[in-house]
Predict the 3D structure of the following.
Amino acid sequence: MNIQIIVNDTHHDKCFRELVNQPVTALRGMTKQQADALRDAFGINTVGELADLKAVKWARAIRTMAAAESEPSANVAKEALIDDAVEMTFPASDPVSIQSSITRIEVAPEKVDASTDHQGAAAIEAHNQEAIGCHALGQGGDKTAGAA
């Protein structure tokens, strides 16, 4: 470890055994006001006393255990339900889009004229003939030339 990045310049020549007994102001970034606050609040004067502070040890233990703790089962279940819902909305079987405007590659089905391919086509044609006086649709569903 490069000790020069964690202690002030005046303490670069000291070994770790010596740094433990140095004032907390030996730590880089620790101001005199912060050191006075630590002394007044916790009775801490040295780097070693700061390291031994129970609150610091407890905080480090909580952070270490939090990293190792597994997710609560309720959260895992909720996450699984959300994942399943998203998968049902956007199934993986859908083809990948080649362009943003193409979402599926399909052949359009042949379409039939609804007026001739209807169970009541004969009644519709009879009504049309009565209303306009001639066949509205010719053979095969095509409009006749004289139809309106």
The two ends are 95 Å apart (CA to CA). The first helix runs from residue 16 to 19. Confidence is low (pLDDT under 50) at residues 140-148. The helical segments are 16-19, 32-42, 47-52, 54-68, 73-89, 121-132.
